[in-house]
Amino acid sequence: MRNIKARYIWISVAVAFLAAIGLIIGVTYTKGNMTTFVIVLIAIVFIYMTIAIQIASAKTFRYKGKKIHYPKREYTIADEDFDSLLKKQGYKPRTTPYGMSYLKVSTPNAYKVVLIKNHEKYFNPEEKEQVSSPNKSLEKCEKFIGVEIFLDYDEETLRKLPDFNIQGDKIYYGGLYQQDNHLLCPNHIEPKEDFIDLYHTILNDLKLDIIDENGE
Asked: b/e per residue, 201-215, with b = 16+ CB within 10 A?
């Protein structure tokens, strides 16, 4: 019944209601075992109506959340060899099960770029995955900016990606994915004044150019 359209279930409820009325009227003309039989039928019809009304109501009045339209931003990629670009800019690479992680500390700021080459390992980390030792130089940093770039992804990844974008007093973080020779940010947050220079620095390090200011 759950695969049947709501309108057909409502029609069946109406038919059952008319049948129930007919049975109620008919029971007054019956005697003995027939009366018992008709009463049982009435009970069955009312049980069906109760269940059918619940299912039909759920289908008819189901809440449909509005799709959120996030501000998007798109970038052109001048050089897809991010590894070489980042190393030349002083980023220290670290190999991870799902890709590569790059960190550059330029006190009082820190920059991080993560390249995800295997989205399944990213979202399902191994239990015995080695945890890197903390970088003590980060303790002196006042601002932290980072981006996570998905080179490998699926529909579920794209659904989660808008939540990667955050901004606070000391942190600015963004999630992007590559499509052909472009990088797309599905939920761009305009950097505050304190992060504008850091934002453009990390774009320059990656050789990215903004090509869509309005996200339309």
From this structure: bbeebbbbeeeeeee
Over residues 61-100, the pLDDT tens digits come to 765 556 778 899 999 999 999 999 999 999 999 999 999 9
Q: What is the DSSP annotation of 76-139?
A: EES-S-HHHHHHHTTPEEEEETTEEEEEEEETTEEEEEEEES-HHHHHS--TTPPPPPP-GGGG
Evaluate whether 126 touches 120 at the Cβ level (below 8 Å).
Answer: no
pLDDT confidence of residue 42: 85
Q: How far apart are CA 188 and CA 167, in angstroms?
A: 10
**Residues ≥6 apart with Cβ < 8 Å to 142:** 108, 109, 170
Cα atoms in the Cβ-side hemisphere of radius 13 Å centred on 103: 13
101, 112 Cβ separation under 8 angstroms:
yes
pLDDT at 57: 80
Q: For position 64, what pLDDT does the model report?
A: 58
pLDDT mean over 165-178: 95
Where does the chain have alpha helices with state H?
6-27, 33-60, 82-88, 119-123, 155-160, 193-206
Task: Give mean pLDDT, residues 115-120.
Answer: 96
Beta bridge partners of 148: 114, 175
Please state, in angstroms and rounded to a whole number, the distance separating the CA atoms of residues 101 and 170: 20
